[in-house]
From TrEMBL:
This is Homoserine kinase. Pathway: Amino-acid biosynthesis; L-threonine biosynthesis; L-threonine from L-aspartate: step 4/5. CDD domains: HomoserineK_II. It is an enzyme of class 2 (transferase). InterPro entries: Aminoglycoside_PTrfase, Homoserine_kinase_II, Kinase-like_dom_sf, Pseudomonas-type_ThrB. The gene is thrB. The keyword Ribonucleoprotein does not apply. It comes from the Bacteria. It comes from Rhodoblastus sphagnicola. Residues 27-257 form the Aminoglycoside phosphotransferase domain. Its EC number is 2.7.1.39.
């Protein structure tokens, strides 16, 4: 459960006096997520999500995230909409953290993603990439390839306590990624964390996307590689090419990949696995005292990384013997 910051009733009531949402009826910490503190707030006017931004969110970048959700919603993409205070602002402070309220999105995430979820998610990812094109603000990817080695250095000393040899294996892979990372692929606004918990469905219909707090500018195909990692592996670690095919089909139904993007999928997928291996490793080794959070297992992403290392052709993501 990700509740790093407690909010007292008094602090909440004071915060809510600046909005026109009516009286609070209930307020409770949300059991999912690892990055930010989230509460479900039920007010007289409806349900809202209150987010207190934690360590990986730079407060100066919050206008980008808020503006992006507003832009995407205006383009017809279903995502949370920041709620404005009476003074017109959407960003505030609560319990010493930057905080904002967003609208509650109906739907549930797929606990066990199936092929049709992958198809719909691929389509939604392409829709997001296309819808982001007119957005005026920019944000560099703070977790892009050049940042992986410094991030690794913060965990290097503890890495082998997670599994023997991990530090050496990561260091060698970082060498390869530094040499082989693509320099010039189509780029724009990407979600950068479109995991199953950030995609909602009502029945088989995708009802919306949440959690834009890693969104940034980077290669579109890297975002797709993040999704291949997050959606197309089975709990036992096996890659499911049927899901990979559905993910790519969904994506390409709206935004066909260029030949260079397709060719880069194996290295982008290795990079995506490395990014989540590194953040998970850091979080595994640095659980804040008293935080209600269950860190995610870094080794799931070591297994994915090894899978991508063995890929000899991008076609293996859509067809495997
Ligand atoms: N707008 C929303 N509407 C409905 N539920 C939401 C909304 N935003 C967040 N949630 C709920 O809160 C949970 C955590 O939110 P979110 O994924 O943004 O947190 P996080 O800590 O950034 O998580 P992650 O580990 O995915 O980065 C979601 O899984 C979902 O259950
Ligand atoms: N989606 C991430 C957590 C948020 O960065 C993970 O599963 O590691």
């Amino acid at each position: 459960m990700a509740v790093y910051t407690d909010v007292t009733d008094e602090a909440l009531y004071a915060f809510l006096t600046t909005y026109d949402l009516g009286r609070a009826r209930s307020f409770k910490g949300i059991a999912e997520g690892v990055e930010n503190t989230n509460y479900l707030l039920h007010c007289e006017s409806g349900y809202f999500i209150l987010t207190l931004y934690e360590k990986r969110v730079n407060p100066t970048e919050l206008p980008f995230f808020i503006g992006l959700m507003e832009h995407l919603a205006a383009q017809g993409l279903s995502c949370p909409l920041p709620v404005k205070r009476r003074d017109g602002g959407a960003l505030g402070e609560l319990a010493g953290r930057p905080a904002a309220l967003v609208t509650f999105l109906d739907g549930v995430s797929a606990r066990k993603p199936e092929v049709h979820h992958c198809l719909e998610t691929g389509r939604a990812l392409a829709r997001l990439h296309l819808a982001g094109q007119g957005f005026g603000l920019r944000r560099e990817n703070a977790l892009a390839q050049p940042h992986w080695r410094p991030l690794f250095e913060t965990s290097r000393a503890g890495a082998d306590t997670v599994t023997p040899g991990l530090a050496g294996e990561i260091a060698r892979e970082l060498d390869t990624l530094e040499k082989s990372w693509p320099k010039n692929l189509p780029r724009g606004i990407i979600h950068a964390d479109l995991f199953p918990d950030n995609v909602f469905f009502i029945g088989k219909t995708l009802s919306g996307l949440i959690d834009f707090y890693f969104a940034c500018e980077d290669f579109f195909a890297y975002d797709l590689a993040i999704c291949l990692n997050a959606w197309c592996f089975e709990p036992d670690g096996a890659f499911n090419a049927t899901k990979g095919r559905a993910m790519l089909q969904g994506y390409e139904s709206l935004r066909p990949l260029e030949a260079e993007e397709r060719a880069a999928l194996p290295i982008l997928s290795r990079g995506a696995a490395m990014r989540f291996l590194l953040t998970r490793l850091y979080d595994w080794l640095n659980v804040p005292p008293g935080a209600l959070v269950k860190p995610k297992n870094p080794l799931d992403y070591l297994a994915r990384l090894r899978f991508h290392q063995a890929i000899s052709a991008p076609s293996e993501y859509v067809w495997r013997p």
